[in-house]
Amino acid sequence: MNRIVTMVLKNLSFVPGAWMKLCKYAKAPEKYSDAEMYRHIQYIVEHALTGGNIQLTVTGQENIPPEGGCMLYANHQGMFDILAVAATCDRPIGVVLKKELYNIPFIHQVCLCTHSYPMDREDVRQSLTVIQQVTEKVKNGRCYLIFPEGTRSRQGNTMGSFHGGSFRCATKGRCPIVPIALVDCFKVLDQPGSKPVSVQIHYLEPIPYQEFAELKPAQVADLVKERIQAKLDELSGPQAARE
User: Fold this and answer.
1) What are the residue boundaries of the structural domains of the chain, listed by start?
2) pLDDT tens across 214-239, in order?
3) Contact assessment for residue 18 and residue 26, using Cβ atoms and an 8 Å cutoff
4) Quick one: DSSP state of residue 213?
5) Mean pLDDT of 116-144
């Protein structure tokens, strides 16, 4: 059985009320605090994890700056990635996601509540606008998540290329970067079945702005990818595949 169906069926008594409350927030997010809306999103995700037979192992949550602007950059494995971060990052975050996902019910409401932005990878001007908008938000103290591969790798725990452009948010925002290593997240929603599954999310040591201030965005991308790859190698052993 599809895992999403399992999530819903196991939470039938919970879904209607949680959905209506999320829609209420999404219709007028300016009326509510970021913390209140984010707590509700995490509440929904917690039920989804239980209903979907998903076990999350998380490390390094202390590496998330408690205040001030910051950027989170993670390897991209599948549709579950955003939920994995939302479930384990207690600080409200926004996400930059591809435009095809933005209008999907639930994802759309969550995006409205978290000041998230859709990006059209085929439209350079629109992409630059999104980067500028996120940069301004980060300068004002918000935290954002970007998947610098731009799309799911579809290679399990093997990463694809990191695009330097997404790191302009950090270089222009002059904020710390928190690399995130996701492991086995592709098994949740990108593979058939609903049997119990375990995934890992590791928040790595922050990279302060001073460490990459003189680097070009493409060099920052290489730096972050190396940090994530090192963690994947540590977890998988010397046989871990590199790009």
Assistant:
1) 3-236
2) 999 999 999 999 999 999 999 986 54
3) no
4) T
5) 94
The residue with tokens 């590496």 is 63
- On whether the CB atoms of residues 168 and 119 are closer than 8 A, the answer is no
- 222, 223, 178, 226: which is closest to 204 by C-alpha? 178
Task: Give CATH for domain 3-236.
Answer: 3.40.1130
Q: What is the pLDDT of residues 76-96, one digit of tens each?
A: 998 899 999 999 999 999 999
Considering only CA atoms, which of 33, 80, 25, 30 is closest in space to residue 52?
80
DSSP string, 3-35: HHHHHHHTTTTTHHHHHHHHHHHHH-GGGS-HH
Q: Give per-residue pLDDT as tens, 186-222.
A: 999 888 888 999 999 999 999 999 999 999 999 999 9
Say how many C-beta atoms besides its own lie within 10 A of residue 103's C-beta.
Answer: 10
Alpha carbon separation from 21 to 44, 57, 108, 113 (Å, rounded):
11, 29, 14, 11
C-alpha torsion angle, residues 33, 36, 40, 46 (rounded to 10): 120
What pLDDT score does 153 carry? 72
Distance (Å, whole) CA 67 – CA 30: 21
Listed in sequence order, the residues at least 6 apart from 204 whose beta carbon sits closer than 8 Å to its beta carbon are 60, 63, 178, 179, 180, 181, 227, 228, 231
pLDDT at 159 over 60: yes
